[in-house]
Amino acid sequence: MADDKKILVENEDGDSAELNANLASSPEEINADNNDLNLLADLEKVKTDLAAKSDRLLRLQADFDNFRKRMAKEKTDVAAVVEQNFLTDLLPVVDNFGRALEHSETSDAETLRKGITMIWNELVKALSKHGLEVIDTENQKFDPYYHQSIGNVKDETKADGMIAVELQRGYMAHGKVIRASMVQVVNND
Hints:
Layout: E1 3-10, E2 16-23, H1 27-103, H2 109-129, E3 132-134, E4 147-153, E5 163-168, E6 171-173, E7 176-179, E8 181-186
Parallel strand pairs: 4-8
Antiparallel strand pairs: 1-2, 3-6, 5-8, 6-7
Helix pairs in contact: 1-2
């Protein structure tokens, strides 16, 4: 059984308060107090662990955010290098077009045509170097993945579903269609 004892507490200002203190007198009460102390110690340990894990989580979030920003910057940098390389490969085409324009008034039509053909071949070579491919439509069956039909035509020399006319050339880059060929398809019905 606990004995009630009054304790007088005074602070620096001279105020005082009287508290009732229960003094444990039995072993059960002492064990209960020890259990309370153990629970308080466990609670403090859990609080410390939680604070440490919370701090670790914040650090991981910051690390991930930094990683994401670094990857975005690297992606932008790589894209800029690819674009610069592409533009560098097109500069000879630009130069040759400039020369052709300078000499267009003094050249005859055949010389001008040969010059434009050379520039065209140079442009196709530069674009091919960067993965551009022409979608073939000659003697091909219509495929909606590669072709866009804008109409049907009758042509007794070709089977139904075959491409009759290519109106606009289609292109692929690295195996992916970037512009479908605009075509007319044979329909003899």
